[in-house]
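Agenda item 2: 1,3-dihydroxyacetonephosphate complex prediction
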Amino acid sequence: MRKRMPIFAANWKMYKTFGETAKFIDEFKTNFKAFDKNKVEAVICPPYTSLFKAAEKLAGTCFSLGAQNMNFEKEGAFTGEIAPAMLLEFGVKYVIIGHSERRAYYNETDESVNKKLKFVLANDMVPILCVGETIEEREAGKTESKILGQLKADFAGIGEADAEKIVIAYEPIWAIGTGKNATSKDAVDVVNFIRKTMSEIYSKPLSEKVRVQYGGSVKPENIAEYMKDETIDGALIGGASLDPAKFIKICESVL
Ligand code: 13P
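Presented output:
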């Protein structure tokens, strides 16, 4: 019996139009048997333009809806940004914050990540916070110091009751979209380090409650390796989540 509810989240990134979203979910609904919500949580994070269609099509299923980013202001003159009320209107439950692609290409910093985490929580949604190292950092033996720095800065000023709701995704940058997934041992080592850090920042009980996913080239063929160690609470999936049959297989890996 797992201590924490596993959670699999599909990060569609900048893939799938409105029409493709409808097609995906239709295919998807004919292929999966409803999951027991007490055994696994499954989330789809489409682009903003597909949220409406996804919300409509997923209504009444065991899937939750997520977004890929959110601004830390309520509303205003922020061209191209998305506000919490706009996500809440579609029933969005999860918001991915601090993905390495946003940190690398859109100037997302630990400071903005921290503000966004607080604002997602203040709006009663659940952040999925991404942390992870580059290949250069790993090879230089700096994986732990990078993750420690990110966790300390990203959780700054967040109280324990809020912190335990946040899902942390360990996504080594070198494993994202490369087909070179981390070994389960490497992933487990870092996830254990994340728990140790959370225990130092907060408390042991919190470190045992917080859910930590692995992300980076997860596929139906490798998900079992990660899930056999109950330290890892699921996955954040990019490429493989674009195929309904593959995403279903990944979600079913814990059933
Ligand atoms: P891939 O599964 O395509 O490697 O992407 C992982 C990821 O970035 C999920 O957020």
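Discussion summary: The chain has a mean pLDDT of 96.
Owner for follow-up: CH.
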